[in-house]
Amino acid sequence: MKVVLFCGGFGTRLRDYSQQVPKPLVPVGNRPILWNLMKYYAYHEHREFVLCLGYRGDLIKEFFLNYDDCLSTDFELRPGVQRDVKLLGPDISDWRILFRDTGLHNNIGQRLMAVRSEVEDEEIFLANYSDALCDLPLDDMLEKFRNSDALASFIAVRPSNSLSKIEYGEDGLVSSIDY
User: Fold this and answer.
1) Which residues contact 87 (CB under 8 A, 6 or more apart)?
2) Which of 15, 55, 65, 66 is the most buried (most CB within 10 A)?
3) Pick from 85, 86, 91: which is nearest to 73 by CA?
4) What is the dihedral of CA 140, 145, 147, 150, to 10 degrees?
């Protein structure tokens, strides 16, 4: 099951910080939000990623091109003439990451359409903004979705203040969305 991650926003709410790095690269601990999100999906056995790049996508590409596994997992080092490094834990070596420039000013729908060919043969695919983390029991959510007649499913968190509104019934089905 592929995971589409939207990495194209300008990060306007971060203002000064987002001029240096895109929101998905804002660090949480010693790794970017994006990496932590991908580790969450990998934990649930989803290791094929489609990154929809936009603003500062070059920095996201650079992060993965210069990625050092040793900074994220245990390893054994045998210094010497031929420096020998043996990773002792899994990291991202079994991930498949497609980097797709989906436009600087495109909205989420346009970004998803730009990668449609990557997911159109999938029975189910996952999609997520790349600037937020959660501890959602993903397997439970997927099972509930598979057992429903729904075409799509999404997770929403009640914001402290918002101009948008989602109404849903006792059955969890959305009855209206106001933007």
Assistant:
1) 69, 70, 73, 74, 75, 93
2) 55
3) 91
4) 160
Span 74-123, pLDDT tens digits = 999 988 777 888 888 878 989 999 999 999 999 999 999 999 999 999 99
Q: Which helix (H) or strand (E) segment is 65 a member of?
A: helix 57-65
Distance CA 28, CA 45 (A): 22
Q: Please state, in angstroms and as integers, the Cα–Cα distance from residue 5 to each residue in 32, 55, 56, 77, 147, following that order.
A: 14, 14, 15, 34, 25
Q: Inter-axis angle of helices 33-43 and 57-65, to 10 degrees?
A: 60
Q: Name the residue among 126, 123, 122 with its Cα closest to residue 155.
A: 126
Strands 2-7 and 174-178: unpaired
pLDDT tens digits, residue range 29-80? 889 999 999 999 999 999 999 999 999 999 999 999 999 888 888 999 988 7
Query: What Cα–Cα distance (Å) separates residue 117 from each residue in 4, 100, 113, 114?
Result: 12, 12, 8, 8
- Residue 127 has which token pair? 């999609």
Q: What are the distances in angstroms from CA 111 to CA 17, 52, 141, 153?
A: 24, 6, 24, 18
Closest CA to 111 of 120, 100, 102: 102
pTM (2 decimals)? 0.86
Q: How many CB atoms lie within 10 A of CB 28?
A: 12
